[in-house]
Amino acid sequence: MPADSTNFFEKIFDVVKQVPYGRVTSYGAIASFLGAARSARMVGWAMNGCPGDLPAHRVVNRVGLLSGKHHFEGTNLMQQLLENEGIEVDDNKIVDFKKYFWDPAKELDF
């Protein structure tokens, strides 16, 4: 892991904190926003150890799959958290993903 990965992880967490209620973003969108477009997997790696107060359930893969759901307690906690925010999930995938997608590049100015 690069020496500056801790700083990169903090930047990732700063973006995740900004994802609005009832919206989702992707690992790749966060990576692109941070100037590391090919680092979606690094964002996923960071999310594995993110602080518990972050809305990690709002970060999904590029097509809306709940690819990080195994990091949540219980079988369907990630899905339940999203559904509590009004986001419909079917077969571990967000229904109408584009409707709920939040792009940090269009919304944030770090």
Q: Concise description?
A:
The protein is mostly helical.
Can you tell me about this structure?
The structure is a single chain. The protein is mostly helical. It has a single domain (5-101), classed as Arc Repressor Mutant, subunit A, CATH 1.10.10.10. It has six helices and four strands. The protein has helices at 5-18, 27-33, 40-48, 77-84, 97-100, 104-107, and strands spanning 25-26, 59-60, 89-90, 93-94. The strands form two sheets. A two-stranded parallel ribbon has the order 1-2. Helix 2 crosses helix 3. The longest helix has 14 residues, at 5-18. The chain is globular. The relative contact order is 0.21. The mean pLDDT is 91.
Output the keywords.
mainly alpha; Arc Repressor Mutant, subunit A; two-stranded parallel ribbon
Chart the SSEs and their pairings.
Layout: H1 5-18, E1 25-26, H2 27-33, H3 40-48, E2 59-60, H4 77-84, E3 89-90, E4 93-94, H5 97-100, H6 104-107
Parallel strand pairs: 1-2
Antiparallel strand pairs: 3-4
What name does CATH use for the topology?
Arc Repressor Mutant, subunit A
Taking strands numbered 1, 2, ... along the chain, how are they ordered across the largest sheet? 1-2
Determine the N-to-C terminus distance. 24 Å
Structural class: mainly alpha
Main sheet summary: 2 strands, parallel
